[in-house]
Design goal:
The complex is a heterodimer of chains A (415) and B (255).
Chain A (H helix, E strand, L loop, with lengths): L1 H22 E6 L2 E6 L2 H19 L1 H10 L5 H4 L3 H21 L6 H26 L8 H18 L3 H23 L4 H21 L1 H4 L5 E2 L22 H5 L5 H28 L1 H11 L1 H6 L4 H27 L1 E2 L6 H14 L4 H17 L7 H15 L16
Antiparallel strand pairs in A: 1-2, 3-4
Helix pairs in contact in A: 1-2, 6-12, 6-15, 6-16, 6-17, 7-8, 7-9, 7-15, 8-15, 12-13, 12-15, 13-15, 16-17
Chain B lengths: L3 E12 L2 E12 L3 E5 L6 H8 L7 E6 L2 E2 L5 H7 L1 E3 L12 H7 L9 H5 L3 H20 L15 H13 L5 E5 L7 H16 L4 E5 L3 H7 L2 E6 L2 E6 L1 H5 L2 H8 L3
Parallel strand pairs in B: 3-8, 3-9, 6-7, 7-8
Antiparallel strand pairs in B: 1-2, 1-4, 4-5, 9-10
Helix pairs in contact in B: 3-6, 5-6
Classes of the chains: A mainly alpha (415), B alpha/beta (255).
Chain lengths: 415, 255
Amino acid sequence: MGKLYNAIFSAGIAFVLACLMIGVKLNTDGTTLKVTGATSEQWAWIIGGIALVFFSQLFADQIDSAFSKIPKPKVAHFIPEGDKMTQLKPWLLAGLFVCMVVWPFMVSRGSVDLATLALIYIMLGLGLNIVVGLAGLLDLGYVAFYAVGAYTYALLSQYFDMSFWVCLPISAGMAALFGFILGFPVLRLRGDYLAIVTLGFGEIIRILLNNWTAVTGGPNGISGIAKPALFGLEFTRRSKDGSPLFHDFFGIDYSSSYKVIFLYLIAVVLVAFVIFVINRLMRMPIGRAWEALREDEIACRSLGLNRTAIKLSAFTIGASTAGFAGSFFAARQGFISPESFTFIESAIILAIVVLGGMGSQVGVILAAIVMTILPELAREFSEYRMLLFGLTMVLMMRWRPQGLVPMKRPVLELK
Amino acid sequence: MSQLLLDVNGLTMQFGGLVAVNKVNLTVKNRQIVSVIGPNGAGKTTVFNCLSGFYIPTAGSVMFKGKEIAGMKDFQISRQGLVRTFQHVRLFSNMTVIENMLVAQHRHLNTGLLSGLFKTPSYRRLEQEAMDRAIFWLKEVDLLDSANRESGNLSYGQQRRLEIARCMVTQPELLMLDEPAAGLNPNETKELDELIIKLRDEHEISILLIEHDMGLVMGISDHIYVIAQGTPLADGNADDIKNNPDVIKAYLGES
């Protein structure tokens, strides 16, 4: 009886959703909107789908038992033992890195561009992961540090003609400085209060960039930001000021995809660098202290840990990673405006961290890739993109709140 | 006569109009086990909070190794060598046992950013020393087998022992235990009893103890202070306290 009820309920939900999403359409007719029903063929599909939901729910047990008779492939067979895994790990990583480097030469320009974007989000996710995942400080204005990094490079390049490679550490430093300045007064706040303050800070930076027209160009943004060069070789077709060009130097024909691939490779190197640094940090005393502070602040204090210094370091290092990503973002786009640094960006980065699994690096990387590539794949459903996004969130939090790849505790060798 | 390790004079803590602790005097000598007892709500834990810097006392002085520590920040006090445990166990429960032990040694480690990134020799050496100390103390409290388990998954008695071990790796001179036997079964209490005596005799540290388990207190204390309603009531050795009419009255009420 319970099953029948369950099946009817599920079919009902399927009916409501299907009617709303497929059954009715709004069409513009001149200046008015007209509601049109679906064609009879579509209705047939809808009814078929509902019937499928109904019967699959009704006979869920039978279907399950039928499936369980099919022998499952033994996963343990393919994944080597723990000892072998640690031996293989450097090779696997090296292999992965080589693949990452070779891959762009075989695929389309668009895919490389998208991959570069994903790599930027990986950097951002990893940075925020320190603040939220490890130190447990909810930062809703993370995009502010991203903006600081991007604008630092853009302004330095515009006004002082400084190169990308010089500006990269400066941008990270500037973002870290902002993180430090913001962090100092607010880190005694906890949880929700901290979230509100950081949210406000994010907005302040955006509004400042929007209104300080004399320096930042206001809503028009900054355009014509110089692209990174390879040891002084530029990737443009014609040299503006007589600086050497990449294709001239190597004696090959000009192609705009060199620039895209070059940017992608820079991103790969930057991400590798960020992963290396953060990986070390997590295993260093400071990384353990971040987590300890998240677990129990009072115990930390009783053990002689200076909580302000520890929180501040998490905030500053997280911010500098965002600054790093920001300056690369500015270099890649060649144009930035406050539009790129709205609250929704902060929310997406936070979503990456939560979806990936708080504190888990592999999880965050995976989530960043999923979150940038899925919307591109789902271009045809562009109207439903946000809906799908929200649905994924709800489902993840319901069934896998610990994230895609939950954080694993390091097992320390005892002699 | 051995030297005074902790010398508390006229310690007073007021919360608005409420006087939680009123002119408490306390001394702990080297290698002594001193207990503070009293009925529930007498202000024992408040005394601990004042000593460890969680509260800043309204009045009075706290001399530790001849140095005034009242008014110092909590983490500074614990760096002086005065470390405490809590009435309710406070472990980093999502971290492993060994990680708990390493976090406690934060200030003994090389926390420089660059030395950690490049794993300099001094960083490695300090890290190894911390590891050795952690392993040593885990052995002492019989938790080495659980070193890579998450501390939240340990049994209650093990968590209590881990908390003590975690304090000990900070190399304190005075260990303050806030009701360490609460929630332990008689067997575990006996082990705790032995552990505390071992800490004093073998590792030469002093212990300040708050406890309700009178068997434990009377058996191991060198000196006992009784506090009732924030005010010192009596002090002396176990026999003095057992026969003190004021103490009996405070515990059992007027007869």
